[in-house]
UniProtKB/TrEMBL annotation:
PANTHER family: SUCCINATE--HYDROXYMETHYLGLUTARATE COA-TRANSFERASE (PTHR48207). The keyword ATP-binding does not apply. The keyword Signal does not apply. It comes from the Bacteria. Pfam families: CoA_transf_3 (PF02515). It comes from Noviherbaspirillum galbum. This is CoA transferase. GO terms for molecular function: CoA-transferase activity. Keywords: Transferase.
Amino acid sequence: MADSPLNSTLPGLPAAPARALGHIRVLDLTRVLAGPWCAQNFADLGADVIKVERPGAGDDTRSWGPPYLRDAEGRDTSEAAYYLAANRGKRSVTVDIATPEGQEMIRSLARQSDVVLENYKVGQLKKYGLDYDSLKREKPDLIYCSITGFGQSGPYAQRAGYDFIVQGMGGFMSLTGERDELPGGGPQKAGVAISDLMTGMYATIAVLAALSHRDRTGEGQYIDMALLDVQVAMLANMNTNYLASGTPPVRWGNAHPNIVPYQTFATADGHIIVAVGNDGQYRRFVEAGGCPELAADERFATNPMRVRHRSTLVPLLAEMVRRKTKQEWISLLETAGVPCGPINNLDEVFDNPQVQARGLRVDLPHPSGGKVKLVGSPMRMSATPPAYDRPPPLLGEHTADVLRDLLGKDEQEIASLRQRGIV
C-alpha cells in the first residue's frame, strides 16, 4: 500500500478525520471527464491522487470555457469551470511522457502507487513503456485501469470514443427525445455526458473491487473500461424489455408508454411533472384542477382506458394545468397526495431547501485568491465521510513537491528538468 501524506497529522494538531481511502495512492494519467471523474471519487474519499498533465497545456478541459473561475476581484482566471468539475482534491504534476526522463519518472511514481488510471488510445502507452505489462513487471500488485471509447478488443478498439457518439451508438438516443410524430420529435442526447460520467462511476467500482482482491491475495490486475460497454449496460430495463420481446423500445419523450398521465405539463409559469400511479391519484388530480368530470368519464376512469384514449385526454389535462402556476399545482397536489414535482433550473436547484440542507454546494479557497464553488460528493458515510482539502489544482502546482518528496529530486535537478521542458 502507498504511504499517503494525507494520513499524516502535524504535531500538536488533532488527528485528521478517518479517510476511507487514506492508505491509497492513485496515479491519474487521464484527462477530460470519464477518468478524472473516477479519480475525483478517490480524492474525495481520501486517496492521494497525483494528476499527471502535459507541461504548458495540461488537461484539455482547462481551456474549455467560458465560463471560467473568477478571482477575488471578479476577473476571469484561466481555470475553466468544466475542468473544475472533475479535479477536486488532486495534486497536479507536469511531466512530458514522450521523453525518456519523463517516462522514468512516471515508472517511479507508479512503483509508489496502488492504482494507475489512463485513457490514452489503445496501445499508445506501450511505446513509452507505461502500459500495464511494463509496469506490472516493476510492481506486480498494481491495479491498472484503462478507459477508452470501445475497449481494448473488438473491431472498433482503435477508434476514438466520444460521449455524444457513444450515446447514439449505444442506443440511448433511440430512447430519449420526443416521439417522432410530435413537434420536435427525434433522437436527443442527454444534457450531460452520461456515458463519460457513468464510465467514471463503473471504473471507480471496478478499481475498488480490484483493491479488495489485492488486499486478500496480493494480486494486482488490469481493468478494461469502455464507454460503449457502459452505455449499453446502463439501459437497464429497456435492454431486458427488448431481449424479452424482440421489439426495440421507442421514444416517448416525457410520457410513459404504460401509464397516463405520467408526464410533464406546462403550467401558467413553468412546467411540472405529474406521476399518477393509480386511479385514485388520477381522480384527485383532476378534482384539484377543478375538472372532476374527467374522472367520471368512462373513457378515462381506469388506467387502461386512459392509455387507450391518451390522445383525447392529454390535451384536456394540458388545458387544465395551464390555468394555475407551478407552485399552485405543487401545493395542491402534495396536499391531495398526488406525486408531482417541479422542473427546476439550476438557480432553483441550488435555492432548494433540501439541496441546501444536504450541503451539496461546497466552497473552497483557491490559489487564485478567490473561492471555487463546487458540488460535493453525494456519498454519505458515517465513519469516513468525503472531505475536501484541496481545490482543483493549478497546472503543475505540486510538481516540485512530488518530485522532491516521492522521487528524491533536489532543487537543482528540478530546475534543470523545468529548463529542459521535461516537467
